[in-house]
Amino acid sequence: MKPSEIIELGNGVEIHFCLDAGDTNAQFTLFKVVVHPNAKVPAAHYHENFDETLYGLKGSLTLTVDDETMRLNPGDCCFIKRGRVHSFHNDTSEPAEMLAYANPGVFTAHYFKDLLQVLNAGGPPDLARMKQIMLQYGLVPVAN
């Protein structure tokens, strides 16, 4: 068993990568997301090449999928089929955690590491570069 790789994005979001595409013969990826209160979370987006299932572990997140808004509490799950626009935020005073399962395993920890480089570059993040990274990994940002 290998330990999780933790990627702290510095914006109130931590990614604990459990299994990467290379670990599962590209069948799936599995990671825990910790979202602190008022964290800067990803822009609304959809996935071109993979589906995602979210499972609430701790705390509560507000999740929007297409035009439906819901709470993701511990024990709740939500399947997000590729092509569906989604976003989330933590509007509580406590950290929230969810497990994310993406299949097939085309999504890797490199996505978060590439974003981290942009976030750590100093000054305001280069939004054009962040969009380019999202598109490179099959995430398509959608204007709110």
UniProtKB/TrEMBL annotation:
Q: Which InterPro entries match?
A: Cupin_2, QDO-like, RmlC-like_jellyroll, RmlC_Cupin_sf
Q: Which residues form the Cupin type-2 domain?
A: 33-99
Top-rank taxon: Bacteria
Protein's organism: Parapedobacter deserti
Identify the Gene3D superfamilies for this entry: Jelly Rolls
Under the heading PANTHER family, the entry gives: PUTATIVE (AFU_ORTHOLOGUE AFUA_8G07350)-RELATED (PTHR36440)
Mention any Pfam family matching this sequence.
Answer: Cupin_2
Protein's recorded name: Cupin domain-containing protein
